[in-house]
Each structure stands twice: as structure tokens, then as C-alpha cells.
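COMPLEX REQUEST
Ligand: UFG
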Amino acid sequence: MPRKIVVTGGTGYIGSHTAVELINRGFNVIIADDLSNSDTGVLEGIEKITGIKPGFKKIDLCSKKDTASFFSGLDRIDAVVHFAAFKSVAESVEKPLDYYRNNLNSLINVIDQMVLQGIPNLVFSSSCTVYGQPDILPVTEKSPVKKALSPYGNTKRVCEEIIEDVSVSGESLKSVVLRYFNPIGNHPGALIGELPRGKPNNLVPVITRTAIGKYDELKVFGNDYGTPDGTCIRDYINVTDLARAHVAAIDRLVSGKNENCVEVYNVGTGKGISVLELLKAFEKAAKVSINYSFADRRPGDIEKIWADPSLANKKLNWKATTNLEETLASAWEWTLNCREKGIL
Ligand code: UFG
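STATUS: Structure written out below.
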């Protein structure tokens, strides 16, 4: 019998890529998503890639009643991968209560049902934002968790604490918390990809939209940082590599190899790239040239961060393998495909 995995937020960007990797590995995937930032077309994309249409339920996990009825209708679930959350840093500053209400309630409702139904394994989608601006780079999982710079970041920190507290309370919940660095790119073939509703804030979607002429230029936020070229540094990770880290986490949990009730892993490449370096790499990969100008620093941006992923390399037997050029080419292919279909 294939193991059954519930993927909340599974029609979203990282969720859909993870659903693909889980299905490719023989897991039976059931997606729960409220479609607030995605649509059911993603399910067809997943089916075209894998040959299998995942189970799907449109559900608002902030409703305790609906979450209970969803989980009680399922039979023998082995694990939950919990992605469902609001994720815009800027929006969270404007609407903090929406972010706390949504991101905390959905996690609480999901864990409540996992405990009630005896579902033992949770993989949680966290972020390197919990480190703030680290004093020492690269960051390891032992680096201090700092006060978040945004309500969004704070929801990730509090969610990690909720998971930790539930484990301490004696519930038989085993969790892997994955702290993502900056996911970019799309599944090769452009059948699923990153499609934020409204104006994107993240660097790669802004670059690709500038490349197709949707925006006149890219504004590079700040060129006076204490970095070699003055622009911010991040650890950009291919989304399929990131998705595979979830499969590795599930493998570790279901095979009982985890050493602690809650394990935390950095999921990054270990390499820091500046905004200008990323821009140049994109121009090379896509064979286009991008107009850009320098603008003021973006409030809340940290100067530089990149991961020490060695714990995940060792314990999850996972490593990021896709090179930056290939990743950026996949982002470009997806964007051209969306433009051809009139979506962009
Ligand atoms: N940037 C620009 N111009 C743009 C967009 C971004 O110069 O138009 C710069 C930013 O200032 C930053 C870098 O590109 O220096 C990366 O910005 P992103 O918005 O792509 O990514 P962030 O690092 O700000 O945020 C991402 C995720 C968050 C997560 C955070 C953790 O979007 O969900 O990483 O650090 F919390």
C-alpha cells in the first residue's frame, strides 16, 4: 500500500512542486488548499507531469469544523506536509492580524486533527527569515533565532514554537521543520510554476516580468550594503531541489530514523548570490538584457544571508544539485509559456 500524504497548500508554488516529487516517489498525495492564491489548473499540471491526478479538497484550514471533517473523512494518513499560509512579507506589515489569524490557526487546526486521528508525522514549511540578520555566516540551525522583521516572519517563528511545545507536551507527534532560503525556478517543461496573484515582490518574478516587457525596469533595492557589489545577498535554491528536501524529510520520519521529536534543517545551497549577480546570471541564462536602476533600500530587507546546509546533507541525505543557470532558464521558460497562454 502506498503511503498517504496530505499536502496542505499543495496547489501553491512550493506545494505543487513537492506534490510532484512525492507522487514521483510513489506516495499517494491528497492536496488541501483554499485556492486563495492558486487555482485548480495546477492539478492538471501535476497530472501531466506525473501521470497521476492527486486527490484534492478545497478547504479553509482556518475553520476548525471544516478541518475536522476533512481529516475524519480520510483513511490512514502517514504524514502531513503543511505549506498552507500567507507568504507576503510586505502584505503582512499592512495586515498583521490576517497573517497571525491565518498562519497560526491553520497550523493549530491541522495539528489538532493529526493528534486526534493519530497521524504521526509533520513536515513544516518554515523560513530562514527566523534568523533575521545573522551575526555569523553561513547560518547553521544553531544560529540564534531573532526577533522577526515582519509579522510574516514572526508567524513562522511562532509556528515553530507551537510545534516544539506540542512535542514537549507528550503528544506522539514527530516533526521536521524546514527553513527555506530563497526558492526560485520552476519544474522543467513549464507545466507548473510560480504565479503570484497581483504584483510580485520577489526578485525572480520581477526580473522575468521585466524581461517580457511588463515592467520598464527592475528596481534594485539598495547598492550601499556592506557586500562586495553593494547589493543584498541571498541563497537562491531551485524549487525542485527544495521539494526533494520534503521527500527526504518524509522518508526520515516514516522510516523512524529521526533522532528527535522535532528536527530543524536549513534548506539552501550554501552559496550567497547578490542581486546583481543573480541579474547577470539571468541575462546569461535567458539570453536577454534587463533594464535596471538602483533604488532606495527596501524596508525590512536584511543585508546578507546564506545557509550552511550540511546538517540536511548529512541527516536527510539531501543536497541541492541544480545549477543557477538551469534554474533561471526554467523560470524564463515558465514565464514565456505564461505569456503565450495570455496569463501574463
Ligand atoms: N529585490 C530587488 N528588487 C525587486 C525585488 C527584490 O532588488 O524588485 C531584492 C530584495 O531587496 C532582496 C532580494 O532581491 O535583496 C531578494 O528579495 P526577495 O523579495 O526575492 O526575497 P526575500 O529574501 O526578501 O524574501 C524571501 C521570501 C520570504 C522569506 C525570506 C527569508 O520571499 O518569504 O526570503 O529571507 F521570508
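REMARKS: The first strand starts at residue 4 and ends at 8. The mean pLDDT is 96.
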